[in-house]
Design goal:
Elements: E1 2-3, H1 9-18, H2 25-35, H3 49-58, E2 59-60, E3 68-71, E4 77-82, E5 94-101, E6 106-109, E7 113-115, E8 130-133, H4 136-144, E9 151-154, H5 164-175, E10 187-191, H6 197-203, E11 207-211, H7 217-223, H8 232-241, E12 250-256, H9 263-273, E13 279-284, H10 298-310, E14 315-318
Parallel strand pairs: 1-2, 6-9, 9-10, 10-11, 11-12, 12-13, 13-14
Antiparallel strand pairs: 3-4, 4-5, 5-6, 7-8
Length: 337
């Protein structure tokens, strides 16, 4: 049975017509789904009983609660959602989503795939392999479980640009007047840097975060196979061609080890990013990941940050959250399953 969640306004208008309702009922459906966020047809009180029965006979809403939850000592919460889209592995039907509360904001880290095919050596999620794409309904269902969100980051399981159709569809619904009417500036979508990012830049106004982790192509290729598909040099060249006015922002994520936070790496990063209006977020490596990477100490990260900032590249150290429940960057492995 088809789900209504994830359908655009034009598609909801077609749904209305298909069950004998007037075209304007598509707008009513959009309001019930995306503004009021109902979970049953019975709640759609301005649609006739006959119309609701016809809808229920052919469609489902597409909303469902997570099946498990874990709470970190720092207040971060991780949830396990069962997905509805088909997967190659019948047992791989779950993804993790991370809710990060702060004093003045609440951020949700959203998954876009079951596992990931990018194979970054330092990332636990990559050890899951790739099992399937999330539908727009699966993406939105993660988001709609929460009613106090201020920001979204597509930094959970998967490479968002590798599931771009469904990611763009969910972004349209989140930002369209008929949908949630969010500002795209409240949403950041990450990528390791693959050719599909060009389409994302052209078709979305949301922020972008690029996983760099090493500015040298040869060294980056040793830890990130995607470098061979699209080099970090090509990624930066494409970004420099884009118009970054209108408050849209690009940032670079940089997990830190002693081997990539040297003066040599700092100078190469400054050379590579010269002329691009961007910022760098340094991320502490989580040593719970079973990989051959020792974590940089705080002093080394502070030196690296200060050197880059003093030379004109705004750089911050991102505070790690939820490490004790495997909810921090690169640690999502469906452990709650």
């Amino acid at each position: 049975m088809e789900t209504l969640l994830g359908k655009t306004l034009a598609e909801l208008q077609e749904v209305a017509l298909s069950v004998g309702l007037q075209k304007f009922a598509g707008k009513q459906l959009a309001e019930w789904l995306y503004v009021r966020r109902v979970s049953s047809f019975d709640e759609m009180t301005n649609i006739s009983l006959k119309g609701r029965e016809a809808l229920q006979a052919h469609y489902s809403i597409g909303r469902h609660a997570p099946v498990r939850e874990a709470v970190s000592t720092d207040g971060t919460r991780k949830y396990l959602f069962e997905i509805q889209a088909p997967t190659a592995n019948a047992n791989a039907r779950f993804v993790e989503t991370v809710y990060i509360p702060e004093e003045d904001r609440a951020t949700l880290c959203v998954s876009s795939q079951v596992g990931c095919k990018m194979g970054c050596r330092f990332c636990m999620t990559g050890t899951l392999g790739f099992h399937g794409q999330l539908s727009a309904a699966d993406i939105l269902n993660q988001i709609f479980y929460f009613d106090d969100l201020t920001n979204l980051v597509f930094m959970g399981e998967g490479e968002p640009m590798d599931n771009l159709d469904n990611v763009l569809r969910s972004l349209e619904i989140m930002t369209a007047p008929y949908g949630c009417a969010w500002s795209p500036k409240r949403i950041t979508v990450s990528t390791v840097g693959i050719p599909a990012m060009k389409r994302f830049l052209d078709e979305s106004e949301c922020h972008m975060a690029v996983s760099m982790h090493n500015p040298f192509a040869v060294e980056r290729a040793q830890i990130m196979p995607a470098e061979k598909m699209m080099s970090i040099t090509e990624v930066v060249k494409l970004l420099k061609q884009h118009d970054w006015s209108h408050q849209r922002r690009v940032s670079f994520e940089y997990i830190c080890w002693p081997g990539n936070t040297t003066m040599r790496h700092a100078k190469e990063m400054l050379r590579l990013l010269k002329g691009l209006n961007c910022r760098v977020n340094l991320i502490r490596f989580h040593e719970g990941v079973d990989r051959d990477f020792p974590a940089s100490d705080e002093q080394q990260m502070v030196f690296f940050r200060d050197y880059l900032t003093e030379h004109g590249l705004t750089t911050t150290i991102r505070r790690s959250r939820g490490e004790d429940i495997l909810a921090a960057c690169g640690m999502l492995v469906n452990a709650l399953q």
